[in-house]
Amino acid sequence: MKKSLQNKDHTKNIIQKAGFRATKPRLALLSLLQVAKYPLNIKEIMGKLETATADQVTVYRILDAFKKAGIVNQINFQDNATRYEYKDTEHDHHHIVCVTCKKVEDFIGCDYKKLAGEVLKQTPCFAEITDHSFEFFGKCKTCVSV
Amino acid sequence: MKKSLQNKDHTKNIIQKAGFRATKPRLALLSLLQVAKYPLNIKEIMGKLETATADQVTVYRILDAFKKAGIVNQINFQDNATRYEYKDTEHDHHHIVCVTCKKVEDFIGCDYKKLAGEVLKQTPCFAEITDHSFEFFGKCKTCVSV
DNA sequence: TTCATTGCAAAACGTTTGCATGTAT
DNA sequence: ATACATGCAAACGTTTTGCAATGAA
User: Fold this and answer.
1) Domain coordinates of chain B in residue numbers?
2) Regarding the domain delimited by B1-89, which CATH topology (the fold level of the hierarchy) does it fall under?
3) Distance in angstroms, CA of B57 to C1' of C8?
4) DSSP A24-84
5) Known binder of ligand: residue A125?
6) What is the pLDDT along chain B (146 residues), one digit of tens a residue?
7) What is the residue-averaged pLDDT of chain A?
8) How far apart are alpha carbons A47 and A44 in whole angstroms?
9) What is the dotted CATH code of the domain comprising B91-145?
10) pTM greater than the 0.85 cutoff
């Protein structure tokens, strides 16, 4: 079986296992997020999706549903546009963003689990932690000298 | 000298040391952020500011300038509204947010400096780190049982 | 006085809602 | 067949821009 077909089946499985119907917009959107090199905002998503694959409103609804289902992560680069990324549990990572040119690079090593335990002890109101966000902002080697 | 006057002078000093003129909107906004118990979004700010103290556009411009000057932090709770918090360098902290009722509690212990060094080694494109964001999302003791 | 700062009007985005139509299972 | 999903239109909330008027130093 060809690799691309395996991937298509895999994408379809993820959608169905999460309890959703495998529709054209959902398959296209999840496939797109799976190959994206960094978290995409709505404009980038609509630009990369083939015309008439999905309405923008549909994309918003799917992203919301996928986020609740734990299939995608919602990410914010402080640029007034929510970004979404496929949640690959095998390759947990976070991002560093250049504040000047917006270049993005991944990094690993965020040991949030240890801190999560300490935080629950510190915060008397809270019972459980379900998610976390963590990004670094800085300057890339090109922009730092400007 | 009364405490409230000391605070007023302190607020004025912060603004002027950052290179800004100590105008009514800027004094009111920074004072508000200094006493806020959690990061405020624009609606909350406009609601808490006395009427006619500052136009909403002015508030946006001041927040942007204060952020660039390092006086305030920009924070995102994944609720489509940018939040701002007075940056008190003496009391560095982050936030945990209840995904159900939006309650916020602070926590300390984010040792980002150690990770920042490792991240710069990992990411060949980046030269320096200037900022970071870190929030936990979870459920408070009231909402967890629902 | 002078230049930084503000207010107002209007536009530009990002996001959500309601409802009729379409479709995966 | 039918409950789930989508598309379209329109509303909504947040943020930005241009420009003339104002005010702090």
Assistant:
1) 1-89, 91-145
2) Arc Repressor Mutant, subunit A (1.10.10)
3) 10
4) HHHHHHHHHHHH-SS-EEHHHHHHHSPTTS--HHHHHHHHHHHHHHTSEEEE--SSSS-EE
5) no
6) 555 556 888 999 999 999 999 999 999 999 999 999 999 999 999 999 999 999 999 999 999 999 999 999 999 999 999 999 999 999 999 999 999 999 999 999 999 999 999 999 999 999 999 999 999 999 999 999 87
7) 95
8) 5
9) 3.30.1490.190
10) yes
User: Whole-angstrom Cα distance, residue B105 to residue A123?
Assistant: 7
Q: Which nucleotide is nearest to A52 (CA to C1')?
A: D7
In the beta sheet, which residues pair with residue B94? B107
Q: Evaluate whether B104 touches B38 at the Cβ level (below 8 Å).
A: yes
Query: Is B104:B96 a contact under the CB 8 Å cutoff?
Result: yes
* Length of chain B as a residue count: 146
pLDDT value for A7? 81
The closest nt to B22, taking CA to C1', is D24
N residues, chain A = 146
Tens of pLDDT, residues A15-53: 999 999 999 999 999 999 999 999 999 999 999 999 999
Q: Name which of A106, A127, A135 is nearest B140 (Cβ-Cβ).
A: A127
Of B119, B131, B136, the CB nearest to A116: B136
Q: What pLDDT score was predicted for residue B8?
A: 82
Across the interface, whether the CB atoms of B108 and A122 are under 8 A apart is answered yes
Beta-carbon contacts below 8 Å between A and B: 131
